[in-house]
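Lab notebook, bench 4. The sequencing result for the construct came back, and we need a structural model before the next group meeting so we can plan mutations. Quick request posted to the team channel:

Model the 3D structure of this chain.
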Amino acid sequence: VQLVESGGGSVQTGGSLRLTCTASRYTYDDNCMAWFRQTPGKKREGVASIYSGGGGQYYADSVKGRFTISVDNAKTTAYLQMTSLKPEDSAMYFCAAGQTCGNWWKASEFGYWGQGTQVTVS
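Done. Here's the predicted structure in token form:
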């Protein structure tokens, strides 16, 4: 499975962005899609995850109430709607796919990754 992110960019504090993650195909083995972010010198941080069937959604405390993760009906595209953006949200954002969202905050749980898209909030 190949994942391609898009939608990053530069935005002012309080602004919004929507990130898109497109998977080359859907597999029943990869039921969880997630977004992570990383800044230089820091470990990759789980931001949000969702079951491809549209079930449970999970969020890091730092983004609850501001970010929304969703997936399309074809189960091949995940979105991350980001609102009320803060400078501390600035990072490279990565899309990931894995079998389960059970330990979704752990990058090691995901076998497929995109190349990332940069988000800068100033």
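The mean pLDDT is 92.
Will bring this to the meeting.
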